[in-house]
Specification:
The complex is a heterodimer of chains A (157) and B (769). Chain A is mainly beta. Chain A contains two helices and eleven strands, in the order βββββαββββββα. In chain B, strands 13-16-17-10-18-19 form a six-stranded mixed β-sheet, with helices on both faces. Classes of the chains: A mainly beta (157), B alpha+beta (769).
Chain lengths: 157, 769
C-alpha cells in the first residue's frame, strides 16, 4: 500500500524543506524527526515546524511515494548523526577517560569516553556510547563485534 | 575532531601543515597578499561521514574544500552574504547564504564549534570591513584561545579548558593510597619493626627441632639416656619463642589495625568532602546507589586490605626471606632443592593476576548494578504497587542478580583452580625435599635433625605461599576499589574554584547576563540570553516547561557553569568568586522543599547554624510558619525530615522560606515555590514570600502566571531564548507569547479552582506524609 499524503514537500533555495498543506498553507524550515531512531527508524516519522509543532505524521517511510521518500531520506541523512561502531581498533587505557580509535559505518574516527556510565545499555544487545562532545555512537549488537573489539568493550562494561 | 583556530583579535594560529601546503603552494588558491584570518578544519562530509575538509576566512573571501570537492571553492565578499552556524545532535553546520539561496554548507563534530564561532565572527567583521570600510570592534574581553570563554583579570588558565582532562589515571592506583598513609608514618614503621621481630621469633621453634632430634631423640634410640636438663632447655626455648612471638604479634596487629582504620576513615571523609564539592552535573549523571557503594563498601574493602592482607603479605615476605637465609646457612644444597617450586608458583601467580583483576572489576560493576535496581525501585515503590508491577521489578532484580552470578561464576572458574594448584605444588615440593633429604642422609651429608628442621620450615613456608597467592585476588579487589574511589577524587568539579578568587563582602544584587549560553551534552538548552537585573528588582521567568527557566536559575546559582558568555554580579564574573562564598548571597526556595532529619529550628538555621533563637523565630514569623510550628507537640524542637514529624507540603515550603529568610540574602531565587501546593496554601505561602521578596533582587519562576503579578518585569523564554521582556500589562498589550500563555491559563483557571476546592478536604489529609 502506498498512501499519498494530502500535503506536498519540497526543498527551497536555502536547502530547507517546505511543506504545503492541502488548504494552501506553507510552512518553511520543516524538519523530519524519527520517533524511534534506534529501535524502529523506518517507522513513525513526524514533520515538525521550527517551533516543534507537529505538522504531519508518517507511519512508515517505505510506504511513501518515491519522490517524497527520497527527499526525506536525504534530509534525514543530513540531520542524523549516530555513527555505528563496527570495530574498536584500540583504546588508550582501560581506566576512564579513555580515547578509542574506532571504525564506524561513517568512516574511522576516535572518541573520548569520559566514564563507564556514558555507555548506556539499550534493549540488549545494543549499546549507546556518548563521547566527551556528546556525540552518540551506537553499537547495534555487541556480540556481533569481532573478538578483539568485544574484549576491549568488556573491560568497560 | 576538528582542530581549533585563532584567538579573538590576535593573529590566527598556524594552519595544520597539510592544509597550509594545499592553500599556499604556488598552484594553491591563496594570493600572495591574501591573509588567512580564521580557519576551521571540518571532519564530516555532506552525508555525515567522517572525512576531512577545511573552511578558511581570508582577507578577500571565504574558501572551502570538503571531501566531496575536487578543488577549492571560493566566495569573495559581497553584499547579502551571511555565514551562520547551528547544531543538532552533536553535528554543527555552517551555512553560507546570500539573499535568496544557500551557497554552501559544511558539517563538523561539535569539538570544532568554538573555531566555527570564531570563523563566523571573523567572516562578518571582514565582510563589514569590505562593504562599509569599518571594522566592528573585537570583543574587549580577553578570550581563551581554545574555547573563547572570557578570561578574567589575573586568570591565565581558562577555567573551562583546564577542567577537560582526558588523561587516564595511573594504573598503580594502590600506590596513590600512600598519600593517605603519610600521616601515620611513625606507627607504620613501628608496625613493620614489630612484624620483623615477630617473624624472627616464630622461626626459632623449627630451628630448635634440629638439636632436639640430633642431640636427644636419635641418641636415645641408639641407647643413650635422655638428659632432662637439655630437654628442659630446648623446651623452654620453644615456649619462650612462642610467648615472645605472641606478645609481639599482638602489638603489631593492634598498631596496624588502628592505623588502617584511620587511613580508611580519612579516605572516606576525603572522598565525601570532594563529592560534596562536585557540581550538580556530576550528581545528575550518577546513581545514588553507586556513589553510596563507593564511599561505603569500597573504602571498607581497602581498609581490610591494608589491615589484614597487606600485613599478612609483608609478614610472609619477611618469613620467606628469613627462612631462606636460615635454610641456606644449614645446608645450601637442600635449600636449593626446597626453594625450587618457588619460581613456578610466582609465575602461576603472575598468570592468574591479569585474569582475576578484570574479573573482579566486572564483579564490582555488576554489584553496583544490583544495588542500583534497589535504589531505583524502593523510592518508587508507590508507582510500582499502583501499576501492580511487583513481578516485573522482582524479575529485573533477579536478572541483575543472575548477571551477578554469571560474572562471579566466570571469575570463580579461574580462582577455584588456583588454590588447589598451589596446594598440589606444595605437596610436590615436600615430596622433593623428602626424596632429596633421604638421599643426602643415606650419603651421610646431613643428619636426621636437619631434615626434620627443613620439613618443619618448609611446611610453614609453603603454607605461607598458599596464603600469599591469595594476595593476588585481594590486591586486585582493593586496586579495583581504589580506582573507583580515585575516579571520584580525580573528578574535577565542573564548577571550579577560581585560582585568584575575588571577594565580595557585600553584594547589591545587580545581576547581569551577557549572551549566556548553556549546552547539556549536545543539546543547547539556552542560547544568547542577555539580561540586566537591577538591585531590588523582581523578575519573573515565564515560559513553557523546557523553555530553559530552571536552567537559567541553575546557572545564576552556579550549579552549572555557562558554556558561553558570562554571568556578572555587581560587575564581577561569578566564576571568579569562591563558590561557597557566592552562594551565601543567594537564597533559594525550591519546588520540593527538602528538610533534613533534625528539629525545625535546626532546619530553619541550616544556612546559618549560629543563628540565635530570636532570629529563628523572627524568620519563622516572617515566613508565616511560626503559628503552625507552635501547634506541633514539641514546637521548634519537633523532629522533621525523613522519619520525623509529618508536615504538609505548604508547611514544609514555609519552613524552607524561613530558611532563606534567615540568611538574609541580597538575591533570592524562587523556583516554582508554590507549584506543588493547592491554591489556598499557595495564598499563605504567597504572603510569606511577600515578606521574603521585599528589598531583594528576586528571580521567580512560576507556572501559575497569576503569582507573578508583583514582578517588575517578566522575561518570557521560549526554547532557550528570551522572546519578550516587559511588565504584565505591556506584554498583555503586545499580544505575543506571554499573551497566549496567559490566555491559555486563564481558560483553565476556572475549572482548576473548582476541582481544587473539591479536593481541599482530601488534600488536608493526603498532603501529610
Amino acid at each position: 500500500m502506498t498512501d499519498t499524503p494530502d500535503y506536498r514537500l519540497s526543498r527551497n533555495a536555502f536547502g530547507r524543506l517546505e511543506l504545503h498543506t492541502a488548504d494552501g498553507e506553507r510552512h518553511a524550515d520543516v524538519v523530519p524527526v524519527r520517533a524511534f531512531p534506534i529501535t524502529a527508524p523506518e517507522q513513525g516519522i513526524a514533520l515538525v515546524d521550527p517551533h516543534g509543532r507537529e505538522l504531519a505524521w508518517i507511519d512508515t517511510l517505505t510506504e511513501l511515494p518515491d519522490e517524497l521518500r527520497r527527499l526525506l531520506e536525504t534530509e534525514l541523512a543530513q540531520r542524523e548523526f549516530m555513527p555505528e561502531i563496527r570495530r574498536i581498533v584500540s583504546v588508550s587505557s582501560f581506566a576512564t577517560p579513555s580515547t578509542w580509535q574506532i571504525e564506524t559505518d561513517r568512516g574511522t574516527s576516535h572518541l573520548v569516553l569520559k566514564g563507564e556510565e556514558d555507555i548506556r545499555r539499550l534493549a540488549a544487545p545494543a549499546l549507546l556510547i556518548a563521547d566527551s562532545h556528546g556525540i552518540h555512537f551506537l553499537i547495534r549488537d555487541r556480540q556481533a563485534l569481532d573478538p578483539q573489539s568485544r574484549r576491549f568493550l568488556d573491560r568497560f562494561l | 575532531m576538528p582542530r581549533a583556530a585563532a584567538a579573538g583579535g590576535s593573529s590566527p594560529p598556524a594552519l595544520p601543515a597539510e592544509w597550509a601546503v594545499r592553500l599556499q603552494s604556488p598552484n594553491g588558491p591563496l594570493a600572495d597578499d591574501e591573509k588567512v584570518l580564521a580557519w576551521l578544519e571540518i571532519d564530516l562530509d555532506a552525508k555525515l561521514r567522517f572525512a576531512p575538509g577545511m573552511v578558511v576566512v581570508s582577507s578577500e573571501r571565504l574558501l572551502a574544500m570538503s571531501a566531496d570537492d575536487r578543488q577549492w571553492q571560493s566566495w569573495p565578499y559581497r553584499a547579502g552574504l551571511t555565514l551562520t552556524r547551528r547544531d543538532h545532535a552533536g553535528v554543527g553546520t555552517l551555512e553560507l547564504c546570500d539573499v535568496d539561496s544557500l551557497l554552501g554548507a559544511w558539517r563538523y563534530t561539535l569539538g570544532g564549534d568554538v573555531a566555527a564561532g570564531r570563523l563566523v565572527d571573523h567572516f562578518s567583521r571582514q565582510l563589514g570591513f569590505r562593504l562599509n570600510g569599518e571594522v566592528a570592534p573585537a570583543s574587549p574581553l580577553a578570550l581563551c584561545p581554545n574555547c573563547e570563554t572570557p578570561l578574567l583579570a589575573g586568570q591565565e588558565e581558562c577555567p573551562v579548558c583546564s577542567k577537560e582532562i582526558h588523561e587516564p589515571p595511573s594504573t598503580w592506583t594502590l600506590l596513590r593510597l600512600g598519600r593517605f598513609a603519610r600521616p601515620y608514618r611513625g606507627q607504620l614503621l613501628a608496625g613493620f619493626v614489630l612484624s620483623l621481630l615477630t617473624t624472627a621469633a616464630t622461626l626459632v621453634a623449627p630451628y630448635l627441632t634440629m638439636p632436639l632430634m640430633d642431640n636427644v631423640l636419635i641418641p636415645y634410640q641408639n641407647g643413650k639416656p635422655i638428659e632432662p636438663a637439655l630437654v628442659a632447655l630446648y623446651l623452654s626455648g620453644l615456649l619462650g619463642s612462642s610467648l615472645v612471638a605472641w606478645l609481639l604479634g599482638w602489638g603489631r596487629t593492634y598498631i596496624l589495625a588502628l592505623v588502617s582504620e584511620r587511613i580508611g576513615a580519612d579516605l572516606r571523609t576525603t572522598t565525601y568532602e570532594h563529592l560534596l564539592k562536585l557540581s550538580q552535573e556530576y550528581f545528575g549523571g550518577k546513581r545514588t546507589g553507586d556513589l553510596m557503594a563507593r564511599i561505603g563498601s569500597e573504602t571498607d574493602r581497602i581498609n581490610i586490605f591494608i589491615s589484614l592482607h597487606l600485613l599478612d603479605f609483608a609478614t610472609d615476605v619477611l618469613m620467606i626471606a628469613m627462612t631462606t637465609a636460615i635454610l641456606v646457612s644449614i645446608d645450601p644444597w637442600l635449600a636449593a632443592v626446597t626453594l625450587l617450586p618457588l619460581p613456578i608458583i610466582a609465575w602461576l601467580i603472575h598468570v592468574v593476576r591479569e585474569k582475576l583483576r578484570t574479573g573482579f572489576e566486572r564483579v564490582d560493576r555488576v554489584w553496583a548494578e544490583v544495588t542500583n535496581v534497589l535504589a531505583d525501585t524502593i523510592p518508587g515503590i508507590r508507582v510500582v504497587k499502583a501499576f501492580a508491577q511487583e513481578q516485573r521489578e522482582a524479575a529485573r532484580f533477579r536478572a541483575a542478580n543472575t548477571h551477578n552470578l554469571e560474572v562471579n561464576d566466570r571469575v570463580n572458574k579461574v580462582w577455584s583452580l588456583f588454590s588447589p594448584t598451589v596446594t598440589l605444588l606444595t605437596e610436590l615440593g615436600l615430596l622433593i625435599v623428602w626424596a632429596f633429604g633421604i638421599w643426602q642422609i643415606a650419603k651421610d651429608q646431613i643428619t636426621v635433625g636437619v631434615l626434620t628442621a627443613f620439613l618443619a620450615y618448609i611446611s610453614r613456608f609453603y603454607l605461607r605461599l598458599d596464603s600469599m597467592s591469595r594476595i593476588v585476588s585481594v590486591t586486585q579487589k582493593a586496586a579495583a576499589g581504589a580506582k573507583r574511589i580515585f575516579d571520584i577524587l580525580d573528578h574535577v568539579s565542573s564548577v571550579p574554584e577560581p585560582t585568584h578568587p575575588v571577594h565580595l563582602p557585600r553584594v547589591s544584587g545587580r545581576i547581569e547576563l551577557r549572551s549566556v549560553g548553556f549546552r547539556y551534552g549536545t543539546r543547547s538548552v539556552t542560547r544568547d540570553i542577555s539580561l540586566l537585573i537591577e538591585p531590588g528588582e523582581m523578575v519573573g521567568l515565564v515560559g513553557h516547561s523546557g523553555s530553559g527557566k530552571s536552567t537559567l536559575v541553575n546557572l545564576i546559582s552556579r550549579f552549572y557553569d555557562v558554556t558561553e558568555g558570562a554571568i556578572l554580579i555587581d560587575g564581577v564574573d561569578i566564576r571568579s568568586l569562591p563558590v561557597a562564598e557566592y552562594r551565601k548571597h543567594i537564597g533559594l526556595v525550591l519546588q520540593e522543599p527538602f528538610l533534613f532529619f533534625g528539629t525545625i529550628a535546626e532546619n530553619i538555621a541550616y544556612g546559618k547554624p549560629a543563628a540565635t533563637r530570636a532570629e529563628i523565630i523572627a524568620a519563622a514569623r516572617a515566613a508565616h510558619a511560626h503559628e503552625f510550628i507552635l501547634r506541633l507537640p514539641h514546637g521548634y524542637d519537633s523532629l522533621v525530615g525523613e522519619r520525623g514529624q509529618a508536615l504538609s507540603g505548604g508547611e514544609r515550603q514555609r519552613i524552607s522560606i524561613a530558611r532563606a529568610l534567615l540568611i538574609d540574602p541580597p538575591i533570592l531565587i524562587l523556583d516554582e515555590a508554590t507549584s506543588s501546593v493547592d491554591t489556598t496554601t499557595e495564598k499563605e505561602i504567597q504572603k510569606a514570600l511577600d515578606n521574603l521578596v521585599r528589598g531583594r533582587t528576586t528571580i521567580a519562576i512560576a507556572h501559575r502566571l497569576s503569582t507573578l503579578r508583583d514582578a517588575n518585569r517578566l522575561v518570557v523564554l521560549d526554547r532557550g531564548s528570551v522572546v519578550e521582556v516587559g511588565s504584565h500589562d505591556e506584554l498583555m498589550a503586545r499580544e505575543g507569547h506571554y499573551y497566549r500563555l496567559y490566555e491559555a491559563q486563564a481558560r483553565n483557571v476556572d475549572t482548576e479552582d473548582e476541582s481544587q476546592t473539591l479536593k481541599l478536604d482530601a488534600r488536608d489529609e493526603g498532603d501529610r506524609e
